[in-house]
Protein 1
Amino acid sequence: MMMHRILVVAVLYSSVAVASAADSIMAIHRTNADNYKDRALAACLAVAYQGSQAGEDADITKSVFLEWTYYDEDKGNQATDQLVEKYLSRNYSTPVEGYAKAEFRLLKCLDMYHSQDLNEQVRKYVPHPNWIGDKPLEQKGK
């Protein structure tokens, strides 16, 4: 009977741990390269939907990535802003017949996210792309 109670408590505890883990922010466990790209996507969505609740949320999300990503902020942020402008200014007026009035802002941001342009920025501005966390630990002797 005692063993049964211990087992029930253990199952309940693990269920709570799993539930709380499911609600935690996952970005802190992704690489700097992934977070740089995710930040760029958030930046694009913030501009694409500026003035709306979605745009505000994307702008806040973009900012919070500064806490979880180690990269050259001065050059990287400027390059990302330019890339966002480049992709959002694309003319996708009729990529598929029947959608002539669509602006395809989300599609433009997704195309930017998957672009070679953004991959090149990761190579240029993210010195430790595979690192998980804000800043790699300093190596001894340097």
Protein 2
Amino acid sequence: MKKMISRRNFLKAAGAVSAAGVLAACGSSSSSTAASTAASGSASSSAAPAAAGKVYFLNFKPEQDEAWQNLAAVYTEQTGVPVTVVTAASNQYETTLMSEMEKSEAPTLFQVNGPVGLANWKDYCYDLSGSKLYGEVTSDSFVLKDGDAVPAIAYVIETYGIIYNKELLTAAGYTQDDITDFASLKAVADDIQARKDELGVLGAFTSAGMDSSSDWRYKTHLANLPIYYEYKADGISSTDAIKGTYLDNYKQIFDLYITDSTCEPTVLASKTGNDAVAEFVNKQAVFYQNGTWAYTDIKDLGDDNLGMLPIYIGVDGEENQGLCTGSENYWCVNNMSSEEDIQATLDFVYWCVTSEEGTAAMADDMGFVIPFKGAKAPTNPLNAISDEYVAAGKTPVDWCFSTMPSEEWKNMLGSALTAYAAGTGSWDDVVSAFVDNWAAEYQLANG
């Protein structure tokens, strides 16, 4: 009999940090839901082992749906093992996961976004410590542990920052070397904004849309910076009560985004992720906060024309800061599945990260940097930029947003930011949403 989610765990999961909402970590501007089942066929290769079971992967990245569907079909053709890939709509992963887990044919492979997500789903996570997949991981820093058990393994490492158009920045009279901290970023952006008509742009930054397809960039990814610096100053990795030490810094970078922009702050509530993409691709803005996963949306600008800057917020020593690099994408195998389905799922993920077909698809089609020994170098130029910062001795910014206490915390912060931009709310409301709601939501989630 399949184990059911307790009411307490269901409520906790409902308020958990949603993987899709971050993607915030990385999500794309797409909000579509896709679902298909790979066709079965007879095994035609010994490259992947046949298994008696089947695989159902609940994917949270809309921008990689087609690539996963194609890879699943290849695996089925080689092994005869049916692989179903269902992709949750943007911002709906946690809700979809809860719904799917209650079905008789639940996902055999799903994901959590980090420690907070794992706390809600660890009872459903198969221990991967003895798996061949775990044997391929390059470092334990890419796994989540529960004592000696390994309930979750990261399958992609991603990076975000301020992507910029080199051609437009050069036309404005600047290069990346001119921007080394918040003060210089603001000086350059202010100058571009003042000369926007002369330069033929609508603004320095793309619209900081607070529609659900875009707001994760500010209530999650941008909000990571003040959390990171507070944790760093206090020597901690999580907290039940954030202090908000660096919220003045958060304010000044958000103010820059909404004033040196392609649109007025009052209309940001309706601006979408697609709007920002269009503004950047159509050369209407120089700067665009997003990550390596956005490459497929902006690649038409040309690889040589894409650069990426750290997100500077005016903290001492930030000239030595690199890009924000980490993962919130951890595979979990459903331990409530049948033994045959568990084995089939373990075989599938191992094949994905070791076979020529799997590693090529993850690198070339998905643009992933995967933390496994057999990884193929991705062709995504934004990943190469990330490596250049590391090689230059810059310190990557950790992804601390996986410690945000709940999805509701992020939603309340997003609402406060939207009202502040529109002039109907104050920054004090943003501070309250950040600090007071953190303590309250942590208490609700942890008792």
Protein 3
Amino acid sequence: MLNQKEILSTLQMIDQQHLDIRTITMGISLFSCAEVDPAKACRKIYDKICRYAQNLVQVGEDIESEFGIPIVNKRISVTPMALVAAASNTENYVPFAKAMDEAAKTCGVNFIGGYSALVQKGMTRADELLIRSLPEALASTERVCGSVNVGSTKAGINMDAVKLLGHTVKDLAARTAESGGAGCSKLVIFCNAVEDNPFMAGAFHGAGEAEKVINVGVSGPGVVHSAIKQVKGQPFDVLAETIKRTAFRVTRMGQLVAQEAASRLDTPFGIVDLSLAPTPAVGDSVARILEEMGLETCGTHGTTAALALLNDAVKKGGVMASSSVGGLSGAFIPVSEDEGMIAAAESGVLTLDKLEAMTCVCSVGLDMIAVPGDTPASTISAIIADEAAIGMINSKTTAVRLIPAPGKGVGDAVEFGGLFGSAPIMPVHPESSEEFIARGGRIPAPIQSLKN
């Protein structure tokens, strides 16, 4: 039971420290929608999503009002669309994305994820058709998010898919040039993607999941930042324990909301994803947490060690609080969505190479990073390959969400607005990776894949 002091402290977290439920995400299986006739399949997709998620937004708003806990987003994730569309006799997958988009609009959710393909070991015809359709599908829809899993510790890295996705990202940026290439913010390229991630743009409803499920993502960088101010100058074990205790309380709140939402929607409760997902608002930054630990600027020497401590303590606190912690859970470092990361990148202290090093010890990877619009597709593919290699070798989830901003160069910035924030254009190495990417094939799985 919570005592009065803890209740007041939690209220202060919500009121003054940006604590929120970042998302309630309903995962929905669409395997039953597979049809030879693509038009019939699209109708079934729309009908099933609307049938299951018709009350999702209302329930979220009711819980928000009754409990006084902000719930920022209500979202849907579905079975990777390449698996569903494979049964249809068509080479045009864009209508499937549009069916998802219409269902999302009808249900009133912010985003719907799952326009996705899993190609870590090879591409089926359906996988390739979906990947080639991504630029048109994401540019012509409002709420659809896509993802592609190109590697895993068990399978290695599919370099043919990596090569294709370099061109895909460039094409998507060009199709959304009027918004600075913002279409790329809806595409995530993974290694070791998880099946129960509630966060966009990478959410999809995995093949091993139930018919429908409720997953909740909790975020509280401001709460952690406030907590560690109280232990300034104290040893690292005290710092880690403080973060762990704070994460415990945040996860408890997330589990309460998740169970309540699952009950009201008559849907099984899946997981709580405790991720320090920042926003552009001052006081809601992961970078500022690292600086509060004693770094003058995020990106300087010591940043990777500080982030490793933070990520580990968050996970330990979450696991203590709930037996259903899942998703990605840890600290996110999306540049455009974090006020402190933006400032560090603008100062030149935080570079793409340093961000890559930081992804070795945190959740996800190179996220919401704007690069020059004339960056070659092969360089984008090489960046994807580097990040996938980190995930593959370290048996962790890594991802890339790059925006090659059309017409922009180093020294410029691109504005996305809302939670996506703004991003300074970060330099990439000018030296070519063309011959490396042109090899194609598959980078074999590492020796640690042979665990059976």
Protein 4
Amino acid sequence: MRRNSRNRKRNSKNFSNLISYIDTKKFILFMIILFLIFLILFVCFKLGSINRSNSAFNYEISNLDTENISNSTQVSTSNEVSSNTVSDDSERVNNSTTFTIAAIGDVMCHNTQYLDAYNKSTGEYDFSYVFSDIIDYTKIPNLTIGNLETTFAGEAVGYSNYPTFNSPDNIATSLRSIGVDVLSTAGNHALDKGFSGLSRTIDVLNENLIYTTGTNKTQEDQDTILYQYVKGVKIAILSYTYGTNGISIPSDKPYCVNLIDKDLIKSHIEKAKSEDADLIICCMHWGVEYQETPNSEQRELADFLFQNGVDIVLGNHPHTLQPMEKRTVTLEDGSTKDGFIIYALGNFMADQSDVDTRSSIILKLTITKHEDNHILIDDASYTPIYMYKNTSASTHKFKILDMQKTISNYEKGIDTSIGKSMYNTLKSQLTRINDILGT
């Protein structure tokens, strides 16, 4: 009986101890769970704060990127691509900004060139291979301008050579792919295929996002200034030609080609200034073919352009290089400004026989708009190029060479495919270019 009593007491004590032990474990477990809950809540709170912070940061970056894109995108007004609207102040810059402009010479296409670009298996034309060596010099600058010496009147009209040019549309596509933004279309070949050819040329270029200046489908187009915006700087681009190779301008469409007429030029310059252009570029189709020096008319017109407010003059038509110069222009009010002119850029792509018509340059201008809106032309440099024709090749014979790189590669034995004769030609042409333009 006593044993049972002791056993009951001992069992009761053991049971109490077990209950106490279990309660302690529950308590500890409860505390652990509570701690974990607080830890999870704390971590979630911190992560939420970080995400909110990142969202704000990303928003700021997004806004910054949008602003940068807005400032670097070329927003233009032209004949077909967009309407004649002046940018609002948000697209302008109020502090100093530096940008680059590239300029190339005549874009021509002889029958040898478009036959070389034709792919019999596809029935298509592709000129992209011509530009592979020089693409960086035209694509990297903020704005690239060229001069068109052919038309895109369409295959139905028939592709043709000198004296009345009509070329495959793919030239426009290839030019855009290497970064060409604007083509001056006021030239002596503008009406080679009549007004319909002129109109279709504008359409083809616009479809390829290349803006045109100098030829027009309507009177309103002629009265419209082409603007390009580079980092917020508003650039007006004008274009004029001495004539159209004796082809009469349609009497009912006198506006279709901008001729070199001082009254017309001055009216366009004044309009550009009244619409707050920061920089005015004028493309001039002038001079005497195959002459390496400007004539008296070119020099007189250059003075006229600078005195009336043009900042940069890009000359073409002679098919060979002519000198360039930077000058300080004194205006009527006694103020001064920078001016730059190259009288002729020569041929960019062509298949003319004279060796002097095969060498040219890609011009690069570095320009700064300062806080007081004053424009300075900081630097003018150039890359010598040569239209190479590999007569031993069955196709893809043509290639625009970076002359200095090609000479260097030949001398180092990296690429001797051009041969000794062409190497010597490139050396002599490089000397000629430096003699005309300076180093």
